[in-house]
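The records we work with from here on pair a chain with its fold. Taken together, the tokens spell out the fold as the letters spell out the chain. The record below shows the convention in full.
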Amino acid sequence: MFTATTIPLIVTLCYIGLCVASPYGNCRKCRGFGFKTKITRRGRVKRGRDCRRCHGHGRRIRIGRWIYNRAARIYRDAHTPAPGTRPGTRSTEGTPRR
């Protein structure tokens, strides 16, 4: 019925859709609270220090979105002209002088 490549392809496409729809997920260390919970000697739950991983926001960027952002930044940096140069002109750096 399904071949060995269709199931990973479906899972990958679903993950890409998840990264597009919701690029941030809950922090795995504080489980989205933004802080570490402490239990006092009386057994009451109390707010602790801010989470060091998410800096108290409780959110983290998903791995797929991080990879997309990095690839888009590399592509954008490679295809935009350097500041101070006019678009459409050729650069003479690296060419030997006659």
In short: Strands lie at 24-26, 35-39, 45-50, 59-61. Residues 11 and 77 are 31 Å apart (CA to CA).
